[in-house]
Protein: Cytochrome P450, family 27, subfamily A, polypeptide 1, gene 3
Amino acid sequence: MVWWLMKGSWLLRPLAWARSCSGGAGRVSTVPASPPNLRFKPRTVEDLPRVSLWELLYRLTFQGFHSHMHELQILEKGRYGPIYRNGMNAVSVSTAKLLEEVLRNDDKFPNRGDMSIWKEYRDLRGYGYGPFTEKDERWYNLRAVLNKRMLRPKDALQYGDTIGEVVTDFIRRIYFLRQRSPTGDVVTDLNNELYHFSLEAIASILFETRLGCLEEEIPTGTQDFINAISQMFSNNFQVFLMPKWSRGVLPYWRRYVAGWDGIFSFATRLIDRKMEFIQQHLDNNQNVEGEYLTYLLSNTQMSIKDVYGSVSELLLAGVDTTSNTLTWTLHLLSKYPQCQEILFKEVSTSVPADRAPSAEEVTRMPYLRAVVKESLRMFPVIPMNGRILADKDVMIGGYQFSKNTAFNFSHYAIGRDEDTFPEPATFMPERWLQDSHNRPNAFGAIAFGFGVRGCVGRRIAELEMYSFLCHLMRHFEIKPDPKMGELKSVCRTVLIPDKPVSLRFLDRGSGHAA
Ligand code: HEM
Structure:
């Protein structure tokens, strides 16, 4: 039942079966919901079209949708309409309007679903829960601490110089990589390079230290951490599915725990190093100044175990998301040279050529922001999410749902909905620059989620991506590498390209552009 926990597929979907949706899973219905009988009773969950568990399993296993869950959203929407019970017995919504209705009814302490296997690891090792694993009032209080210095746009700006340094190093690395290619302008496996960039950027903020991911040789400890993330995700699904008694017999639990051990040992080592640094300063009666980690460590509401738990989850959430979004954005810019040209003009007229753009400047470029928004609409890095609404009964799309109904959000299908986005398969950043009457419904593309449980790293991610694109545009014109062929998307929790991406980086300053 928890296919989203398959390799790479993780936590942004409800795991719980909705109490109000707990009927059997055997019936396949293509019959549209019966018309409302307003005089007697409103339509309920029982009136919704429904995908059976068997149909879902068939599609995942025999039709190969297990790595194309995003495309399954479109197929199911075509068959069952914009609101239906999916094969997991949760209610799937796939229009901006329905999504808005659900989110406007969200709980005081929003809940994406059961995180018990993640919690189990933390309980086993005595770590605190982080923003993903914590719930209810404790989650709310934790977010109040984590949001500070991170969530408001002006909070993120203080990291502008730190990010700027990482971006500068990455540009240097692009020059280095492309001159190694036979034509002198191609960078291969860009997704991997951007993964290292994102890890370096988020670590430089969270740990206030540089890891060296953009050096020629990536440090061993760092590669171990990257491998540990992959190991944890690869075994997540099996651990969820298998009964507890099998843990001593089958290898999955052991590997899953080892994966988490690798993630936490990396994070705790860096946190401990910072603690020692702070302690030395205090012992010498010196002032302690620092950024995010120093702030967390000096916060009396957080124990060191809580800091371990939260920082590890922030680190985990902050790498694949930004790196894949940047990969898709560069791919789209290479395919749409006219958009790239507009972006280049905006960048070069907004900031003098002799200096790097400031963090404030990069956030003041409307086309740049529209480019990122449009890329995330077409390739939402988190293509599905959800909520369990537990506070009250709700009315969504004319249907009455009782408390504890689980809703799934088909963000990929919503972002490709023709009614909200004419020519949905075309990259058109301009659509986000129209006046408020003509702008698309904002719920059509909410890549960072919504409300109090929305992405805590949003402003940091935006700063990273804007700063990156701004610098890159000034150095290079990006063109497709004809050798790469067509690029498709696959869903491994996050929406990623189906193969290593390679692109041509033509020097803007040298007249090298072809
Ligand atoms: C392109 C970049 C990113 C995208 C598209 C993205 C998207 C999301 C989404 C959709 C959610 C769920 C929100 C909801 O349920 O309403 C989320 C949650 C979260 N994100 Fe991000 N994210 C990105 C980058 C980051 C970064 C850089 C960090 C770390 C600094 C981060 C940390 C988190 C955390 C900790 C949560 C869980 C929040 C909670 O449950 O309270 N994300 N993100």
The mean pLDDT is 87.
